[in-house]
Amino acid sequence: MKHELSPELLRRLQEIISYGFENAARGFAGMVGEKLSVVQPVVRAVPLQEIPILLGGAENDAVGIYLRIEGDMIGQIMLIIPIEKAFSIVDMLMEQAEGTTQKLGQMERSALAEVGNLTGSFFLNAVAEITRYEMRPSPPAVMVDMVGAMLDVIIATMGSIGDEVLMFQATFVFAERETRTDFWIVPDPNTLDKLIAAGEK
Amino acid sequence: MMNNIAVGLGEIKISRDPDDVLVAFGLGSCVGIGVYDPVAHVAGMLHAVLPKQNDANAPLTGKFVDTGIPLLLDEVVKAGGVRSRFKIKMAGGANIMGSPNVSTIFDIGNRNVESARAVFKNLGIRVEREEVGGHIGRTVRLYTLDGRMTFRVMGGKEEDL
Lengths: 201, 161
Hints:
The structure holds two protein chains of two kinds. Chain A is α+β, with helices and mostly antiparallel strands. In chain A, 44% of the residues lie in helices and 29% in strands.
């Protein structure tokens, strides 16, 4: 499916999405108790081959927190956190000294799942507020693996592949540290029309 | 000096250069299929994403297992390989989402592997080795020099396939 987006529509979509990302960042920051800013929320069609490169390489080890969007709109949410940063987020959540967490057991994974849950809900709430669509996140799944393997989940779930995938992406940068968390939203192509219609309002 | 040639999502890469290593990085549910002709020293790798190409009118690509495999074999023949000498190995097809919460999503990795096995069976070609399934991503390499194929999982060492 090919969607031709006019510059005006693209700008409007970007507004909706940015609002969602800002709210998601508030949720994330509130939970981990650290200031963070949202860098470059973008709506774009990304060539399939470029996705792993954008995320720093398909072989990089990372933590992925994955949720599906259900309701009036269907889509996927993936937070990708470099593995070391995920450890320090767990330390913050569990109020432990930095460097305490060295691997992710069940407790640590469930803490990270909560981060995904909260961030995803904040994002969807903000978008729902503008579009009036009803949406909710699925329970989160936490994966620890190579970035490429986690992207396969998104692509396989879409069930078909074009040469490009429409994605909404933002990077959260933590004020204190030079680390980043990539936050991706991948709308299902079949429900994209609804979002575009909301953008036209 | 080894030269990594990345085989991206849905791509097929062929090489006759003994310095080249064909690499599919971070395969999750995708499958990496390596073909090697040990006489002509031609190597080919496919990085297929989904089991079946449903649109019969669309051009054939390496995105799908069922159409990608014949394409891969043809490309290796075009580069000087001879079908009867092919050594074929396969890796990937994992289901990395371990969580029961979201596991209602069909196991695409398994379906990719099954699709590949069916295609090879139809063609009457034996797959020499498989490193498939499980819940972990793999990086797969095929060395043009000698046809060695390896895999590596997160935090692990490169192992022969």
